[in-house]
User: What shape does this take?
Amino acid sequence: MDQTMPVPTEDSALLAAFEARIAAGESIEPKDWMPDRYRKQLTRMMSQHAHSEVVGMLPEGNWITRAPSLRRKLSLIAKVQDEAGHGLYIYCGTETLGVDRHELVEQLLDGRAK
Assistant: This one.
């Protein structure tokens, strides 16, 4: 007879209350209880968005030194700065969910992140 350990499940009362809040259109704050799977998916989506902001600044960055005038260089630098800032804000948002932003950046740099 094969005996397997039961997989721990979320507290059904907490899960029902969470789903009721979602159904009511309430905001869920990072420190609020949420199912582990929900938190992981939210972190994954936020990290993908942050990664896309960081990667989005790379093409503009390559053109800064090739820009024909100082005015164009400044425009490209401002675009790169905006993209980097957006990525940083999103990475900081993942920290409120309990994930270290440095770990997410490492995942991007070593190819573990998609």
User: Anything to note?
Assistant: The CA atoms of residues 12 and 46 lie 27 Å apart. The helical segments are 12-23, 36-63, 70-96, 101-109. The chain is about 65% helix and 0% strand. The first helix runs from residue 12 to 23.
